[in-house]
Specification:
The protein is mainly α. It is built from 42 helices and 13 strands.
């Protein structure tokens, strides 16, 4: 909002950000009111004069009107410029949302749209907001006259219509008792208006006060006949005849839905979609059956209740709500059928189950009844409750998916998005309080994982203690360490043991489950149950050995899968952790998804809700021996290492094999066939691979902790994500030292220094390369010593000292030429020459660089070093373009682009396209340059290189300007220069 408001729904209102702008003179108020009522239309001077002087403007009115307008502008202060003079008359300029009648129209239209889609909750809120805009009688302080009086009558009528629509929506929502007093006032104020009277009759009848309704009808009829000489109209008669129906002639109309939650937040798209499904079938069609699933505490019941309350007008024959008992105490189908029949007014209920079911279906036939079946356990429990056909409909909630239920429409509720979760907390604790600590609120939302029950527990504690800050509550949760335990403790209920059954099952593979014998036991259990932990525990405790269709211990699978890292994990990763083949692992994982203990996060990807994962880890610590847990983690980290090593070999096929690679387990069968598939696997598993490195280090598996970052380096480098390896490499150095492997420690330090260089931390990189040298020397590895020195020299060049770097690199190349030939030596020579060409170019000796390129290209080709060969071709093309031979540079850059693409190096591809665009621009090929730069910009945006993307956007914008001297700062590809 701009802070500017104009109003006619009450005394004339003008307000800017500094406060009200009163218009003292009556005639000036009349001028402004006339302009506001006709905006944005231009009002001719003669018409405006007639309105101001009530159709009798005096002589010289035009001059007087001009004077009024001038004084009005002065009274309005900064808003005076809004009053405009045109050749055809006068206007007042208004922006969206500034005039109260415009806001009113918008709110009422939105309310009517909400009524049309049966969203009566939203409709009543919008109607209420619209009516709140009235500050009194419209134009109360504007002099009277025909035009002003017409406007007042019109807006009085609009207010009355809106109040009627609001009260009708309230009655349809079941709030008849609350609106009856207001309807009585409305009828008294408008004794000859039939709609308020008809609404009052309907509200009285809906509140069970049929006698009062009939008396009220007779009173209204007498008024109409005696004072107006007319009989009631069709609307009032219809309301009267509806009341006259005898109860025995109408089927029972149960209204058994629980109260809606006042703080229910979000899920609007799903509510709208489900409402459409439930109301779409025509009579005689198959009934609509919606199954709402999700983990305990996700808000399934409140979703179903909100949906049912919204749809009450669409199911006028009643709504029946049944609690099915859930996993703790599932109720029998025959008992449930009898309860529905009794709710529908049937008293003579057959004992035979089939006859009972037939009677229910006959009773539901042709009746618009909504059944809400809460906390179902399986399809068999609810099949007998299903209507034979529409218009009756069914909503089922369950923690388990119900695939055996034919014709259902499944709806899975997930965690609330962060904005909706924050809004829910704001509704509980107050928007002002929530807005005062946005950072702490965001941390609390994250701690609750978008789980509504957790959010409500935290919100309730804050609401109870008004003086407590959100930050202090978050600090307490973080101090506890485990979010589940911390949130659970806020309720002040006992923390159940991870193994709540006091009588252990003699079968160690069978998960124990507590039995409840009667309602007293259930109530006693509920008194000790946590609202958060209890529902999650129930789903876990109900897991049965072999329920997935194979001889699989589902409870054990649930516990062990919680130990593996990554935001999402794949089926092969799950199979590795569980020590199962993929068929059995698939059975276990799918069953855990079916019972809402795992989320199907993406195709073939699975994830734990963080609070459920904490619960699973608690049970793992209490149930599974330490060795079993360690073996599960080791199986998973070994699987990660084996797969990453295969991918690394495809990414960098010419890297010499080293002794430490003997630690890598064999990946059998091969996880992927070629480079594209390896790249896809690497991208999908990257989060888990990083967590596997941390898990191996934490478990003391030094070999895996040391080896895994080494086979991740190349993959992360070519994806522009090298900074994510800093912490794993630090841990890897410590692991190598623990193993007594100086070569591996040196390699890790070399890799860590490369990361520092990529992050622009050049001094740290140079120092870390130097730190690697003693490790290599103690292992007697002259080539590795040379490698560290080479990389340090390259980093010197990257830090902006190319001449110093060139001298260092010349010395290193001479040192390498003197060593016996080995595969590693050949690779090092390629790296040194590539770096040396760049240093020579940047230090002002391009001719020396050009003379070195033939040897560099031949050496890179000979060892099959595709990444550095691509860089060399690209840099050669760039050098040609800089030296005025762009036509020779383009084929070189094209070759580089082809090679980068062949190995999936998006980073290098972006650099090559940048260089290609520069060469094309020098040649005057603006369209082709624009194309290359645009493609490069998209790549850098995808990689998060927003600075490069901005530079490219600038270059594209300047294409039609005089061509600048070619740049060398942005397009030189040095991303692969250092030796891994």
């Amino acid at each position: 909002m701009s802070g500017t408001r104009f109003g006619i729904l009450g005394p004339l209102l003008v307000e800017d950000p500094s406060g009200p702008r009163p218009v003292a003179a009556a005639r000036q108020r009349a001028v402004l009111a006339a302009l506001l009522l006709t905006a944005p239309r231009t009002v001719a001077a003669a018409e405006l004069a007639e309105q101001v002087w009530n159709l009798e403007p005096p002589a010289g009115a035009a001059g007087t009107l001009h004077s009024y307008l001038s004084r009005l502008r002065a009274a309005l202060g900064p808003l005076g410029d809004r009053v405009r003079t045109h050749s055809s008359g006068y206007t007042v300029e208004l922006h969206d949302g500034e005039l109260d009648v415009d806001v009113f129209r918008d709110l009422r239209e939105r309310a009517r749209e909400a009524v049309a889609r049966a969203d009566l909750q939203s409709a009543t809120a919008l109607y209420t907001q619209a009516l709140a805009l009235w500050r009194g009688a419209p134009l109360a302080d504007v002099p009277g006259g025909p035009w002003r009086d017409d406007a007042v009558r019109y807006w009085d009528e609009q207010e009355l219509l809106t109040r009627e629509e609001l009260f009708e929506a309230e009655v349809r929502l079941g709030r008849a008792a609350a609106v009856i007093p207001q309807l009585r006032v409305l009828v008294a104020e408008n004794p000859f208006r039939e709609r308020p009277a008809a609404l009052l009759l309907g509200a009285l009848a809906a509140d069970g006060r049929r006698g009062e309704a009939l008396t009220e009808y007779q009173r209204v009829r007498r008024v109409l006949v005696d004072e107006a000489g007319i009989e009631p109209g069709e609307q009032l008669k219809a309301a009267f005849l509806e009341i006259l129906r005898e109860d025995e002639d109408r089927p029972a109309t149960p209204r058994l839905l629980p109260a809606d939650l006042a703080d229910f937040t979000g899920r609007e798209d799903q509510l709208a979609a489900v409402a459409e499904v439930l109301t779409a079938p025509e009579p005689g069609d198959a009934p609509a059956v919606v199954v709402v699933t999700g983990p305990g505490g996700i808000g399934k019941t409140s979703f179903a209740v909100r949906l049912g309350q919204r749809l009450r007008p669409r199911f006028p024959d009643g709504q029946v709500f049944l609690r099915l008992g859930g996993l703790r105490a599932p109720r029998r189908p025959a008992e449930l059928v009898a309860e529905v029949l009794r709710a529908l007014g049937v008293t003579d209920i057959p004992g035979d189950a089939d006859r009972r079911t037939a009677l229910l279906r006959g009773t539901l036939a042709d009746r618009r009844v909504l059944l809400v079946l809460d906390d179902a356990t399986d399809p068999a429990q609810i099949r007998r409750l299903l209507p034979a056909s529409a218009p009756a409909a069914v909503v089922v909630t369950s923690r388990r998916r119900l695939p055996g239920l034919a014709g259902q429409v499944p709806v899975e509720l997930g965690r609330l998005p962060a904005d909706q979760a924050a809004a829910l907390l704001g509704r509980i604790i107050g928007a002002e309080r929530a807005g005062a600590e946005p950072a702490a609120l965001a941390r609390l939302v994250e701690a609750c994982g978008g789980l509504p029950i957790a959010l409500r527990i935290c919100g309730a504690r804050l609401a109870q203690r008004r003086g407590r800050s959100i930050a202090s509550l978050v600090s307490r949760l973080e101090a506890v360490g485990q979010r589940l335990e911390g949130i659970d403790a806020l309720q002040g209920t006992p923390n159940p043991s991870p193994n709540p059954n006091p009588n252990p099952n003699p079968n160690p593979n069978q998960t124990s489950y507590p039995s409840y014998n009667d309602n007293d036991d259930i109530a006693a259990g509920d008194a000790q149950r946590s609202a958060l932990r209890g529902p999650l525990e129930e789903s876990y405790l109900a897991l049965n050995y072999g329920a997935a269709g194979r001889d699989v211990d589902l409870a054990r699978a649930f516990r062990l899968l919680s130990l593996i890292g990554g935001e999402r994990f794949s089926l092969p990763a799950a199979a590795a952790a569980l020590g199962l083949d993929e068929f059995d692992a698939d059975s276990a994982v799918e069953h855990l998804v079916q019972v809402s203990l795992l989320e199907a996060a993406a195709p073939d990807r699975f994830a734990f809700h963080p609070l459920i994962q904490e619960l699973a880890r608690e049970h793992a610590a209490a149930t599974d021996p330490e060795q079993a847990r360690a073996e599960a983690v080791r199986r998973w980290t070994s699987w990660c290492l084996a797969g990453a090593a295969v991918a690394d070999r495809l990414f960098d096929p010419n890297r010499p094999r080293l002794a430490w690679e003997a630690w890598i387990p064999d990946a059998s069968p091969a996880p992927f066939a070629g480079l594209p598939e390896a790249g896809d696997w690497f991208d999908r598993e990257s989060a888990g691979l990083l967590e596997a490195a941390a898990a191996a280090a934490a478990a003391g598996d030094h070999a895996t902790a040391a080896a895994l970052p080494l086979v991740l380096l190349h993959g992360f480098r070519i994806r522009g994500r090298v900074e994510e390896l800093e912490e794993p490499l630090r841990a890897a150095v410590e692991a190598a030292v623990e193993l007594g492997e100086p070569e591996v420690a040196g390699v890790q330090l070399n890799s860590l220094a490369i990361v520092y260089g990529a992050l622009g931390r050049f001094d740290e990189a140079i120092a870390t390369f130097a730190e690697a040298v003693p490790h290599y020397e103690s292992a007697g590895l002259a080539e590795r010593v040379a490698q560290a020195r080479i990389n340090a020299a390259i980093t010197v060049a990257q830090s902006g000292r190319p001449a110093e770097a060139a001298e260092r690199l010349k010395d290193s190349l001479a040192e390498l030429d003197a060593l016996p030939a080995t595969p590693l030596l050949s690779s090092l020579q390629v790296s040194v020459m590539l770096a040396l060409t760049e240093a020579l170019r940047d230090s002002g000796d391009p001719q020396a660089a050009l003379e070195l390129y033939p040897r560099l290209l031949a050496a890179a080709e000979a060892v099959g070093d595709t990444p550095r060969l691509a860089i060399a071709w690209g840099n050669l093309g760039k050098l040609h373009a800089k030296n005025g031979r762009a036509e020779e540079g383009v084929p070189c850059i094209d070759k580089a682009l082809e090679l980068h693409r062949s190995i999936g190096n998006r980073d290098g591809e972006g650099y090559a396209l940048w260089a290609l665009g520069e060469a094309r621009a020098i040649l005057g090929q603006k369209d082709r340059a624009r194309c290359a730069w645009s493609e490069a910009r998209e790549i850098f945006l995808a990689l998060g290189r927003h600075g490069y993307a901005a530079d490219l956007a600038q270059s594209i914008a300047e294409l039609d300007e005089p061509a600048p001297a070619p740049s060398t700062s942005g397009a030189s590809d040095t991303s692969e220069t250092s030796v891994a």
